[in-house]
């Protein structure tokens, strides 16, 4: 193939990519108007809104999950919020920010793999069509599962990096740590590897490659330190060290995430095996047979078919059948099918395996330490392995094609040999095409139809016309409930002088109301929580004068936590879609109106 032909093919590849990319963006823009996630997405935006209103990271907000990366999102959110002038339609604006973020990363991954030809479409478009939890919002999930692959893509590249590039890598690592503080373990492990490689190289009189030099790790640390300094400057601009020291123990003592690390390590393997039992049983036999087979490369189509038999039922089940928060589960099986492709490829892509696939797999354990949602989040993390694993599958397919071409040129074995070679190629092509078709179809189907916390897409037929969810479609019943709650909040005439506590998982209420958040988080109130007592002891100014019970009114009033208010003379002044509890002074003013 001459240079002109190669350039023509490359231009054709770029044009096809651009066409598919733009088509997907149009589809995703249309898709973004559907789905009312009453919990997680609203909580993510609610954290940014609290900071925009002047509240303090690590002081006023006690939920540990989103607040650190809200520092990263603050400039973007502040710009959008200032331009909009209110939170009217803020959810749609947030979703568009996510689409831009996802689109930029998609373009980056294509540029990273473009020289591999059409094989670059696999990891690029798998990343593009998958949204963690099907929530199109900037959160710790979208940041860590988006930025970590970018960092690994840079460090695994077969090239020497400049000092500014290593500093940029350190900045990316700091961003990941803000999204998931446990990622500092991964960073420390990487530093230890660099130190060992450097010391070993000096003893042997050799120099390790750039990404394994401890000097470059220190440049990365400088980049991470820049983010740390900005973060500390932002915190202490609003609060004091004594305030932070008083509040941080309560933040790290969050009751939702208190489980021992030994327990979480064991639970990691238990959850993976429990949800993919027969897949792992089958794959263990396939992996074992592969590694002990001295002719594994000749027998590779057989092994890939056997691995596909283990994986495909789970791709179908979690992609099209399973109905319980199914959107993440189908990202894990592909990672282990691609691992088999790596085993049966003679000329392996070791840099991608050791520099991307393996660190991403180790990161799934770090995710387990940080989360309380188990396999739901672990399977998202395995998506980072699945994306790069598609390169392993493409390399295997490339070798099979080369074997076919060699057989044709040599005419080895006569017609019988050519038939066997042709059969191998067809089997390899069908195996790749079958697995990828099911994977991409299932992922795209879920992206189009599944809404975390809402009904399936075809049931979302009613548009919400005001408030933070203006322009979003949901079910008729949910839209009516939403409108009724907004009417009741309007009736309360809450102002910035009020402090509001919401009972139930309804963070979007804080987005609509002008009142301050009279709670340690916009997330939810646990009826058995002791954190609320501790929070008001440290933040007496945040004690609410209005409690709006969006859910669980009877349960809340019957639990011990309600005495925190009733012992102070708080009374119920309204029962409707929600139930309203007010302080004596606020109740008197409300009744007078």
Automatic annotation (TrEMBL):
Highest taxon, organism lineage: Bacteria
Record keywords, A-Z: Membrane, Transmembrane, Transmembrane helix
Keyword Membrane: yes
Ranges that cross the membrane: 15-34, 96-113, 125-143, 163-196, 217-236, 302-321, 352-369, 375-394, 427-446
Name of the protein described by the UniProt record: Glycosyltransferase RgtA/B/C/D-like domain-containing protein
The organism of origin for this protein: Laedolimicola intestinihominis
């Amino acid at each position: 193939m001459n240079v002109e032909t190669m350039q023509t093919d490359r231009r054709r590849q770029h044009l096809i990519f651009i066409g598919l990319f733009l088509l997907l963006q149009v589809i995703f823009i249309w898709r973004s108007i559907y789905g009312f996630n009453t919990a997680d997405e609203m909580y993510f935006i609610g954290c940014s809104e609290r900071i925009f209103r002047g509240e303090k990271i690590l002081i006023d907000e006690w939920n540990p999950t989103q607040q650190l990366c809200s520092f990263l999102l603050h400039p973007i959110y502040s710009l959008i919020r200032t331009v909009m002038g209110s939170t009217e339609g803020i959810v749609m604006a947030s979703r568009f920010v996510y689409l831009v973020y996802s689109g930029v990363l998609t373009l980056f991954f294509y540029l990273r793999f473009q020289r591999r030809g059409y094989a670059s479409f696999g990891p690029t478009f798998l990343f593009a069509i998958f949204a963690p939890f099907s929530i199109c919002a900037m959160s710790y999930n979208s940041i860590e599962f988006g930025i970590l692959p970018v960092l690994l893509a840079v460090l695994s590249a077969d090239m020497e990096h400049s000092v500014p590039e290593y500093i940029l890598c350190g900045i990316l690592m700091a961003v990941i740590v803000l999204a998931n503080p446990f990622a500092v373990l991964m960073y420390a492990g990487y530093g230890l590897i660099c130190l060992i490689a450097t010391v070993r190289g000096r003893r042997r009189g050799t120099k390790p490659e750039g990404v394994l030099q401890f000097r470059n790790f220190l440049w990365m640390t400088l980049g991470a330190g820049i983010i740390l300094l900005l973060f500390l400057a932002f915190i202490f601009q609003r609060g004091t060290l004594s305030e932070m020291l008083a509040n941080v123990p309560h933040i790290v003592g969050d009751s939702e995430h208190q489980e021992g690390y030994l327990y979480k390590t064991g639970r990691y393997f238990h959850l993976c095996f429990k949800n993919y039992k027969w897949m792992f049983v089958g794959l263990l036999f396939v992996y074992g047979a592969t590694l002990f087979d001295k002719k594994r490369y000749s027998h590779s189509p057989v092994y890939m078919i056997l691995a596909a038999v283990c994986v495909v039922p789970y791709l179908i089940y979690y992609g099209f059948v399973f109905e319980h928060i199914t959107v993440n589960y189908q990202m894990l099986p592909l990672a282990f099918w691609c691992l088999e492709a790596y085993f049966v490829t003679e000329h392996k892509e070791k840099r991608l395996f050791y520099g991307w696939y393996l660190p991403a797999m180790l990161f799934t354990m770090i995710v387990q330490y940080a989360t309380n949602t188990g396999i739901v989040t672990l399977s998202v993390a395995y998506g980072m392995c699945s994306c790069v694993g598609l390169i392993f599958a493409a390399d295997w397919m490339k070798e099979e094609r080369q074997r076919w071409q060699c057989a044709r040129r040599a005419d080895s074995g006569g017609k019988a040999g050519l038939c066997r070679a042709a059969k191998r190629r067809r089997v390899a092509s069908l195996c790749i095409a079958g697995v990828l078709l099911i994977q991409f179809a299932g992922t795209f189907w879920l992206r189009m139809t599944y809404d975390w916390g809402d009904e399936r897409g075809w049931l979302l037929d009613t548009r919400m016309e005001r408030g933070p969810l203006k322009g979003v479609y949901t079910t008729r019943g949910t839209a009516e409930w939403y409108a009724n709650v907004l009417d009741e909040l309007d009736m309360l005439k809450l102002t910035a002088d009020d402090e509001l506590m919401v009972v139930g998982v309804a963070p979007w209420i804080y987005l609509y109301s002008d009142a301050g958040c009279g709670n340690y988080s916009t997330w939810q109130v646990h009826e058995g929580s002791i954190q609320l007592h501790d929070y008001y002891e440290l933040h007496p100014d945040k004690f609410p004068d209005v409690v709006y019970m969006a859910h669980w009114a009877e349960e809340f009033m019957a639990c011990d936590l309600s005495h925190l208010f009733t012992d102070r003379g708080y009374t119920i002044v309204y029962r409707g879609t929600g139930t309203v509890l007010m302080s004596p002074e606020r109740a008197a003013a409300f009744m007078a109106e």
